[in-house]
Structures are given as structure tokens and as C-alpha cells.
């Protein structure tokens, strides 16, 4: 059953921003809840800190970025970000008021159009459309290393649609426009795991060397699937469908403990919450068109981002949720 829960709205006021500025001027430490990264058209990316606590937040001024940064990807919990700098991927440590010097990831070279983090943010999968390759990195953020580079053209795979990676970086997945879902493991030949209709988003729930579970949002069948594999082809279980409000899936995130999944829907401007242990579902109006969900500071605070630069701060769980609209990061 889909349940619509009430939400609280709070526009960021000038008074809160003034209070934050006054506190910083007086030398007081203003809590940093997280960050918002945006990419204005034909301009360099912008990174701002979110100051305060849920219900009383303000946006900081743009932070100074290293030279030649062309894209920023915030990791879960916002302790660090991955930046595209002159054809290389680099880690940027974040402390609220400044950004560290870039720590370049050895072997992660190229122009990457999309970056997918694991649930805990300890691994990532980066896709380069120009080279048609996937680069998998593990050991984030302390000891990053490339575990494999998958040449999609050499493997005669179709147009890349979406990806996902496990926390240890040992296994990753690619979803393609022809409906196929492929599994990649370092040192092993890629194998087709499942045939869907149109993979729109994926997230690894759990995995080891020979088995695991992968969540898959299918855009054509308008469904959320749980794929289970044990070294062979996966079996699929439908968790939710069109009758549960799925129309146009955007993002799919899973909690670090693997108990909860969140699915964004562009057509309805909603977030579907699925309890993976009990199977219960809840639908939350997001108030912005949800294209991305990122965990920020605190135990259950998430940033909902829209393509137009608007964003909202969400405090989960859905049963007692609140959403605060943030001013545009642009």
C-alpha cells in the first residue's frame, strides 16, 4: 500500500543567513550539515556548504575550488567529493570552510560523464561516454585504487544507461539500453546477469564474491525489482510497480545497512521508500523534481537535488519526515 505522508516546508530566510554570517564573523563555529554542488550552464561548478541544523539552515558562499575543476560529485555523508580536473579524477576532502588540495586517483584518467557511489561511499563506478569505458575505484577515501577498467565497446555491449558498485569495489554492474544488465568483477570476464526492459537506476544491496542482491528500477515496465544471484543468472522479485506510483524512475539509493531503498520519480515528483525487510512502501512528495539523493551530515539527513539547481533537505524516515526547501545553489 502506498501512503502519502505530510511534510513540513521551510524556505531559507534572510534572517537565518544573517545569523549564520554574524556567527562566522564573531568567530563562532557554525555547524555544517552538508554541501550542495551545482553545474551552471557553460560555467564552472559551484560548491556551497549547508550551515545549521534541519529546520534552521542557510546556504554558505561558494567555496574556492582548485583550478580546472569541471565537475564535482559529492560522496555519501559529504566527507569528501570526487572532482574532474583536467582529464583526471581527484578526491577533495571537505571540512566546511575550505577544500583540500586534490588527491589524484592513480589510473583514473579520462573525461567521466557520470559517477555512481556505493551505499557507504567507499567505492565508485565512473562512466566515460567518449571512451565508452567504466572505471571502478575502491578504498575511498583513504586509499583509492582502480580495480578494473571495462572497455564496453571491446565487449560489444550496447549504449550504457546506468551503473552500480558494491562497497568493497569487487563487483559492479552496468545496465544498458537493450535491457541487459552485466556484472563486472576484477580479473574475470563480464557476464550478463539479467535481461530487463529498460534499466533506469540500480543499487547494490549486498554482495560477496559469488552471491548478492541488486536493486533495479526498470523504466519501461515501471517497476522496482530485487535481483538475487549466486554465481549464475539472477532471479527477480518485484517489490513495487506502476500501481505503487512508479512512472519515470530517476535515482535509486539503498541505505548503508541494506534495509531501505529510495526511488525517485520524475513524473510524480515523489520518492518511494521501500522497507526491504518487511516489504512495506511509502510515497513522499519531494517538492522538487528528484534527480539525485545524497546523504549529508547527521544520521538521517538527505539532500534531494533537481536538474534546475533547486534542492531540498529531507530528514527521514518517511513516517515523520520533514522537507526544507533550500535556495538555489546557482
Write the layout of secondary structure elements.
Elements: H1 14-25, E1 32-38, E2 46-53, E3 56-59, E4 69-74, E5 80-85, E6 88-93, E7 103-109, E8 114-117, E9 123-128, E10 133-138, E11 145-151, E12 160-165, E13 171-176, E14 180-185, E15 191-195, E16 199-207, E17 212-218, E18 223-229, E19 235-240, E20 249-254, E21 260-265, E22 270-275, E23 281-285, E24 292-295, E25 301-305, E26 311-315, E27 322-326
Antiparallel strand pairs: 1-2, 2-3, 4-5, 5-6, 6-7, 8-9, 9-10, 10-11, 12-13, 13-14, 14-15, 16-17, 17-18, 18-19, 20-21, 21-22, 22-23, 24-25, 25-26, 26-27
- Taking pLDDT < 50 over at least 5 consecutive residues as the criterion, the unreliable ranges are 1-27
Amount of beta strand: over 45%
Distance between the termini: 38 Å
Total beta strands: 27
Q: Provide the helix percentage.
A: under 10%
The gross shape turns out to be globular
Average pLDDT rating: 87
Give me the strand/helix succession: HEEEEEEEEEEEEEEEEEEEEEEEEEEE
Biggest sheet, in brief? Answer: 4 strands, antiparallel
Task: Provide the gyration radius in Å.
Answer: 19 Å
Count the DSSP helices: 1
Q: What structural class do helix, strand and pairing data support? A: mainly beta
Strand adjacency order, main sheet: 4-5-6-7
Q: Your description of this structure?
A:
This protein is mainly beta and 330 residues long. The protein has one helix at residues 14-25, and strands at residues 32-38, 46-53, 56-59, 69-74, 80-85, 88-93, 103-109, 114-117, 123-128, 133-138, 145-151, 160-165, 171-176, 180-185, 191-195, 199-207, 212-218, 223-229, 235-240, 249-254, 260-265, 270-275, 281-285, 292-295, 301-305, 311-315, 322-326. The chain has a 4-stranded antiparallel β-sheet with strand order 4-5-6-7, with no helix packed on it. It has a 4-stranded antiparallel β-sheet with strand order 8-9-10-11, with no helix packed on it. It has a 4-stranded antiparallel β-sheet with strand order 12-13-14-15, with no helix packed on it. The radius of gyration is 19 Å and the shape is globular.
Amino acid at each position: 500500500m502506498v501512503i502519502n505522508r505530510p511534510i513540513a516546508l521551510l524556505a531559507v530566510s534572510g534572517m537565518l543567513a544573517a545569523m549564520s554570517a554574524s556567527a562566522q564573523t564573531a568567530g563562532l563555529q557554525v555547524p555544517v550539515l552538508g554541501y550542495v554542488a551545482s553545474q551552471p550552464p557553460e560555467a564552472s561548478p559551484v560548491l556551497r556548504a549547508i550551515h545549521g541544523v534541519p529546520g534552521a539552515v542557510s546556504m554558505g558562499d561558494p567555496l574556492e575550488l582548485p583550478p580546472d575543476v569541471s565537475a564535482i560529485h559529492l560522496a555519501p555523508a559529504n566527507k569528501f567529493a570526487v572532482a574532474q580536473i583536467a582529464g583526471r579524477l581527484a578526491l577533495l576532502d571537505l571540512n566546511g570552510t575550505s577544500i583540500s588540495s586534490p588527491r589524484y586517483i592513480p589510473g583514473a584518467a579520462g573525461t567521466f560523464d557520470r559517477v555512481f557511489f556505493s551505499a557507504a561511499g567507499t567505492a565508485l563506478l565512473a562512466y566515460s561516454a567518449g571512451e565508452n569505458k567504466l572505471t571502478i575505484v575502491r578504498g575511498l577515501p583513504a586509499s583509492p585504487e582502480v580495480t578494473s577498467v571495462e572497455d564496453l565497446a571491446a565487449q560489444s555491449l550496447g549504449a550504457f544507461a546506468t551503473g552500480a558498485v558494491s562497497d568493497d569495489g569487487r563487483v559492479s554492474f552496468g545496465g544498458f539500453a537493450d535491457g541487459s544488465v552485466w556484472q563486472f568483477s576484477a580479473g574475470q570476464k563480464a557476464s550478463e546477469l539479467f535481461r530487463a526492459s529498460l534499466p533506469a537506476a540500480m543499487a547494490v544491496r549486498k554482495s560477496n564474491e559469488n552471491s548478492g542482491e541488486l536493486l533495479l528500477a526498470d523504466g519501461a515496465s515501471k517497476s522496482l525489482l530485487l535481483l538475487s544471484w549466486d554465481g549464475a543468472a539472477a532471479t527477480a522479485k518485484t517489490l513495487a510497480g506502476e500501481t505503487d506510483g512508479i512512472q519515470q524512475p530517476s535515482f535509486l539509493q539503498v541505505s548503508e545497512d541494506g534495509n531501505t531503498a529510495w526511488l525517485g520519480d520524475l513524473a510524480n515528483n515523489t520518492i518511494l521508500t521501500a522497507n526491504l525487510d518487511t516489504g512495506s512502501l511509502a510515497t513522499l512528495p519531494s517538492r522538487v523534481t528528484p534527480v539525485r539523493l545524497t546523504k549529508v551530515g547527521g544520521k538521517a539527513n538527505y539532500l534531494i537535488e533537481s536538474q534546475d539547481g533547486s534542492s531540498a533537505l529531507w530528514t527521514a524516515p518517511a513516517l515523520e519526515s520533514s522537507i526544507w526547501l533550500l535556495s538555489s545553489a546557482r
